[in-house]
Structures are given as structure tokens and as C-alpha cells.
Amino acid sequence: DFSRGWWHPPIDPGGIFASESAQIERRFGLSPIVSVTDHDDIRANLDLQQVHPASRAPISFEWTIPFGRGFFHFGVHNLPPASATDWFDRLKSFTVTPRPDELHDLMASLHAMQDVLLVFNHPMWDLATVGDAAHGREMHRFLREHGQFVHALEINGYRSHRENGAVRALASDYRMPLISGGDRHALAPNAVVNLTQADSFAAFADEVRNGLSHVVVMPEYRQSTELRKLASAAEVVRHYRGYPEGRQRWTDRVTWRSEDGERTLAHFWPQGGPLLVRSAVAGLRVLASPAIRPLLAPVIGKRRPDVSITPVPLVS
After folding, report:
1. How far apart are CA 249 and CA 266, in angstroms?
2. pTM of the prediction?
């Protein structure tokens, strides 16, 4: 029963922050600000703020918003530390028990906090698989009803060039700026980032809310999305011998809720699972290896043309 299970990335929040920071420092020589967003959870952010200043490691998360026939993902960035837990509980409660009449008030209240940034993540992605047409109708209805509280639309480093192009057109239609997002779930840092002269996330949020956003597309985005996802999948199931006990195997990083409580998959599969599962994982590792992956490029993906992302400025 897959609804009882969930998995953890092969890198912890500290590792994510470090890898994103290293890329920004190495490629641009700039001081990094990294907003980590987990799905409907802020524990990682609370941990990060124990070692990093709040101005560079805001409390953020990806909020699931049920809406009509589908649901959307929203980046809620930079919740105030003093009330972050209370705010998270309110928003999570809405996800579990959506009340359409409450959504407007929630988004209006978030918008009223000047340091908070609300980003519509991968808006063209039909997450609920209701069909592109139905998803499009719900998305436009959402923007008509609540668009005044949306500060930016996301350009996503793991979505296709065609889909991101549609987001650019959507941003133009609704006169919203674009902002970078990664949707990373493995070791590679984001393929798109924002550049800013702001020295804190609050100042950056103010820039974006006023229509100023400079999105930089990394060379990695020109590579095949399929091959990059294959590499990420292999990193998810890799064995990391240097990790602490209980996180080394991929089965250690999958949790399942049974009648006896929450247990890792390793509890049920101490040897890695049935032969079919072990064979599939081994095959994935081979296909995603540096020696084989380039040979798959002509079959499952092609190199993208040069990509130019032009921000859409707002008139205040």
C-alpha cells in the first residue's frame, strides 16, 4: 500500500544547504541565501536555523493546496520564526481538511506579512492527473480568485523546456515575475538560481514582491531532463557507506506505516528485498553510471538548445 509509505532523500538538510551554498560561492563568488522547502514539513528549516542565521536560511516549505479537482504546490518562504510553527499548523490543517472559504483568508494573511514570499511552484504540472485541460481550468480559476496574493511563478530546473516556456507565457499574461526553483531530490544542486543584491531573504522577498527577479539558468539545464532524473534516481538507491548507521541503504531511507507503527523498509527487507527488487535496483545503478549514461542520450533524451529566461517586471 504505497499510501502508507514515504521516502527520505539521500542527503540531509545540512547537506542540501551546503551543496547549494557551494555552487553559488564557486560559480558567482557571492554570499548564498538558501530557502529549503520540504513537502508540508518545516522540521528541516528549524534544524538549519540552529547553525545558520535566519536571514540566510529562512523557514519555508512547500504547501499542498487542494483546489477543485486537483491540487497545487506553493512555496511559502520566510515564515516569521516566532509564529512559524503556528502558521505551519494552520496551513497543514487546510491541506488535510480543505475549506474553500478559508483559502482566501489564509493567503491574504500570508501576503500581509511583508517578509513572506509566496511562489506558485511548477504551475503547469498536472499533479492530480486530471488531464491538462481540467488542470488548466483549475489553475486559471485559482489565479483569478487568489492571484493578487501570488508573488511569483516558478521556473523549475527539473521541468521540461516546453513546460517552463509555458510558465513564462503565463507570467506575462498575469504580469507576475519569475523565480528560480529546483525540485531537487538527490545530490545535484539546482539548475536555476536567482541573483540579487539583497543581503537577506526578507530583502530579496521585497524585491520579488516589487517585480524584480533575475533568474540564471545553469549549463546543466541544457542536458537531457530524462538523464538528469535517471542520475537522481540512482543516487536515491545508492549505498552510502560513509553515512550514519540507519541511513546508508536505500531501504533505510524508506518509511512505512503499519499497524505496529512506523518502520523502515529495511526492517521488512533486511537483505534488500526480493530478487526482482534487488535486480531492478542493480540495473538502475548500471544504467545511471557515468560510463553508460552518455550512451543513453540518443535514446532517452537530447541536449537542449541554449536557454534564455527573461524576467517579467511588474509596475508597482
Report:
1. 8
2. 0.89
